[in-house]
Design goal:
alpha/beta, Rossmann fold, Dihydrodipicolinate Reductase, domain 2, 2 domains, globular
């Protein structure tokens, strides 16, 4: 199968340090161009990464007929506008999470996808990692009995006022940046949508962003409880608890490329956890897998591995958590979707 020719929209660190090198190792992905609003930066990144073409603007790259698909790692507020430009130019789009600033933007993006016929996907790389594939298999097979609840946290410490994660108008803040992972993975584990959600938020007055957000997601089968923070010690935890067992994912979100990841499974029979079974998952790079799965969909004229409709529902939960923090009440993500669809 011929490799898909990719262009990169911007020189963000996640692109130059993680995604591009991983995609260059892929079987179906070939990175042939990188663009920046500063041509010098594009040329420097191209030279460092062995990329053939450098462009001095996003429009210049989107006009290149050789580019078939683009990866969009731009700040959150540019995800939908630039992805729409790419779709209008006939390019397939893999866009970093969160793919939009809200439900209304997501509906606009879905409409453009349907009109242009290109593939557009939100880049939740965790969904492609074998450890999460295995977790879902364990839960669905009944290894931990009936699913009851999931508990997670994700945090880091970033006090730089110039960092995009601390700029409100760019879509910064804890929930948008990392809380979205906790929502996405819990929705995947439960295999259903939250009926209602409750959230509480601590804002940094300097930045105007949420620096600590906690939420309860009520699913038909049980609950997910999580916290996320941009002003905490670095941490990431995810545990799934059932009636007869528990699964702990050692490094749930930033799985280390080239290392075997570990799942810990136990039946709760010993508080010292002597009964824990450790499963090691194959070494891989989740960004490589993500790129190749998207490229395969392009070559086979298939659907995105994770459709935008799923991303829309994830965004609805994010909005509901924020709204709950404001109203002090439980909020219904489905009601938000229905209201937005009528506008």
């Amino acid at each position: 199968m011929q490799k898909v020719r990719w262009g990169i929209l911007g020189v963000a660190r996640i692109a130059t340090q993680k995604v591009i090198p991983a995609m260059q190792r892929g079987e179906l992905s070939e990175v042939v161009g990188i663009a920046s609003r500063d041509r010098t930066k594009a040329e420097q990144a191209a030279g460092a990464l062995g990329i053939q073409k450098a462009y001095g603007s996003y429009a210049e790259m989107l006009a290149d007929a050789e580019i078939e698909a683009v990866y969009n790692p731009l700040p959150n507020h540019l995800h939908v506008p630039v992805s729409i430009q790419a779709a209008e130019a006939g390019k397939h789009v893999l866009c970093e999470k969160p793919i939009g600033m809200g439900v209304a933007e997501m509906l606009e993006l879905i409409a453009v996808r349907d009109r242009t016929g290109v593939i557009i996907e939100e880049a939740f790389m965790v969904c492609t990692h074998p450890q999460w594939v295995r977790v879902i298999d364990l839960v669905r097979s009944g290894r931990i009995g009936q699913l009851r609840y999931a508990v997670g946290s994700f945090g880091y410490r970033n006090l730089d006022p110039q960092n995009i994660r601390n700029i409100a108008e760019y879509g910064g803040g804890a929930l948008m940046d990392i809380g979205c992972y906790l929502i996405k993975t819990s929705r995947t584990v439960f295999g259903e949508e939250p009926i209602r959600v409750a959230g509480t938020v601590v804002q940094d007055r300097r930045f105007g962003t949420d620096v600590l957000t906690s939420a309860v997601l009520e699913y038909p089968a049980g609950h997910c409880i999580f916290s996320c923070s941009t002003q905490s010690v670095a941490n990431q935890i995810f545990q799934i608890v059932g009636t007869t067992g528990r699964i702990e994912i050692e490094i749930p979100f930033n799985a280390i490329p080239g290392e075997r990841m570990r799942l810990r499974i136990d039946d709760g029979s010993d508080l010292r956890r002597s009964a824990v079974v450790v499963e090691e998952v194959m070494a891989c790079d989740q960004y490589t897998i993500q790129g190749d799965l998207f490229s395969k969909a392009v070559r086979q004229a298939g659907a995105a591995p994770v459709p935008l409709e799923d991303s829309l529902r994830n965004m609805a939960v994010i909005e509901a958590v924020f709204r709950s923090a404001q109203t002090g009440r439980w909020e219904n993500p489905e009601a938000l979707l229905q209201a937005a669809a009528k506008c």
